[in-house]
């Protein structure tokens, strides 16, 4: 059997210890499948003394993380430090710069610096792999890069954040409001103390920008993702959506838009209403799922655990097996320098059914005012529910017929400042089936 | 850009013409992703004159299929002739024997001769790839071989035959009986004139045996698959299953059984009751879906079009891209000679909930007789529906509590020959969630 592939592991949080456990537990079968053993030789983390539940004594401890980039006993650096910049980025640059393979689970770093790191990796002939950066244990990077390689991919979308899906599923199950469920999720460790990266959609946007790049052969444009999170969803939204035949999911969606002559890139993370017979409607809890629509394959769905130490370790080590097998090509499927820099698509011409929910004053004329604003904007109603809520207000929830997003904006602009409305209206698009 | 990868295409049915269309339509993006153009140079089929809706004049026509194995203008042979033996097998042996890459969509040939062909391919250093042989356009072979490579896979199962799923979905939707729906599906071209390979479970068993081999590192044992099809399912089964909270799906399931000391291989294709909240319950129409349970990844689901010219072509060309990239290892992930020859597992000790449906004489004492047989076998009832049907018979449908399969066999043995039963009881296991 060929020489072992030697790993230097930076970062010993839950995923790092998961990688150690996996490589120890499955070492024999990994060696058979990879054609050579994969072994950890060196490890580094901030705190050497912390008890992580794994025995670190077999591995050389490295105090200076940067040393892994050039250490003589390391073939591949696994970066699990996290953070888009700082030490993780420095380590990545130095590792790839030294012509050495880098495996990372760091979605923020790839979303922000993927173009630079990919170009460097291509120039140095160094593998750069990040299966674990998107959708945890689901091999979707590989599914897009290899499995769907024959297809022009028209659209990629999915449930990319397990925390949000956990919260939305719990709201659905228990009829509780967002704040309630979040507090509960935090208490149980399913959500971070500072949950904003998750619930405001930033984490999903990181992943979406990576998926879009791979799917469309476009340069990553994280800053071009239109991001909305789930904070403003109330229990009544969930209930009305259900009454109308939908479930609410935080959806990241990217597609190449050909509307204005040349191709442009549309990327958005937002809560959507998903029809009950769409596969994503049945994705509950912390599960992730990604749909890619190829021009020959049709709709492909990849589903599994979106986070967690063991699933994420599974993705990290899948990358290591690829490297051991020398089955690694350009980081973004085509050479990074060939990725197209697509302009950003606008949304106004996009056609959707739309869910609108407003809290309004419970007095005569309010519905007439809203209906008139919709009529003037060319927005028509498919179904509508109005019901009284406490303290003399009413809740109006409706799904419109298909219309350009401009019509929705126009409606809301016409109603802005009206004293009939109590608070901001909630707008969510319906995911097409 | 490197030299083109030159394809010799054998078989010009719907999938063959799909491959031609795909390679023509997506040629530019395939060349970018593969790092080199993929072009068809030679084609062969039985009938040169047939109008297939594609222009064959750019390709050299070969009368003698066997010529492709050694033709000077061919790097890879794509075998889409079909049939487990005969010309397809001869072509495969000659191609691989000549040290040349073979891509095939031929599940029957791989199920029957995969061990021989894989060993030959390994010995000759010739890639042998068959993504299109399992689950059409879904990149599940790759998902198991690469994406899940770090995992010990404990169980692999799924919906592997689109025709059966189409029929079961239609029975569900329309409340019609099997024979009715089959005739309709045949008229519409969704089922073959001779549908037995599909509806009797043989096609699903071919695919299952391939998935099992890849998942467990075991030698393919198609003959070891316990196969039951969907012919005996009646409309009442679908209705009772729904009333009890299930949908009926033809499930192929394989796992390594550790019950009797050493590992043994359990493989079965049979209609099962799938709980409504299981992802496979929501797979409708001709869609396929495969679940693999890894010891680190957890449950991975791959879903998409299980057949059709375009999806299957997508899988064929994905293999060609891998070959163009030189990302090909052993056909079965580990060297074929290292695949374990696992003994076949028995079923009697397996623990399931079970659905039992019987048509019985509608007179006093019948339920008592059945209940006594169950009691004696140690089989208890979770839920039961009895209702009158036409002509003085009654239908009894029940779901048992978890029990060893032996208890079900013992019950049926005790009731065999009883004049209370009208026809054979229907037995389907509940898929565990």
Automatic annotation (TrEMBL), chains A, B:
**Positions annotated to bind L-homoserine:** 192
Entry annotated with the keyword Oxidoreductase: yes
What biological process terms from GO does the record include? methionine biosynthetic process; threonine biosynthetic process
Any keyword Metal-binding?
no
Detail which positions bind NADPH: 107
Q: What class of enzyme is it?
A: oxidoreductase
Its Enzyme Commission number(s) read 1.1.1.3
Q: InterPro entries from the entry? A: ACT-like_dom_sf (IPR045865), ACT_dom (IPR002912), Asp/hSer_DH_NAD-bd (IPR005106), HDH (IPR016204), HDH_cat (IPR001342), HDH_CS (IPR019811), NAD(P)-bd_dom_sf (IPR036291)
**Superkingdom assignment:** Bacteria
Q: Which Pfam families match?
A: ACT, Homoserine_dh, NAD_binding_3
The Swiss-Prot or TrEMBL record annotates one GO molecular function as: homoserine dehydrogenase activity
Sites where the protein binds NADP(+)? 10-17
Indicate the segments forming the ACT domain, all copies.
Answer: 355-426
Q: Which residues form the active site?
A: 207
Supply the alphabetized keyword list. Answer: Amino-acid biosynthesis, Methionine biosynthesis, NADP, Oxidoreductase, Threonine biosynthesis
> Under which pathway is this protein filed?
Amino-acid biosynthesis; L-threonine biosynthesis; L-threonine from L-aspartate: step 3/5; Amino-acid biosynthesis; L-methionine biosynthesis via de novo pathway; L-homoserine from L-aspartate: step 3/3
The entry assigns this protein to a family as follows:
Belongs to the homoserine dehydrogenase family.
NCBIfam families associated with the record: PRK06349.1
What's this protein's name? Homoserine dehydrogenase
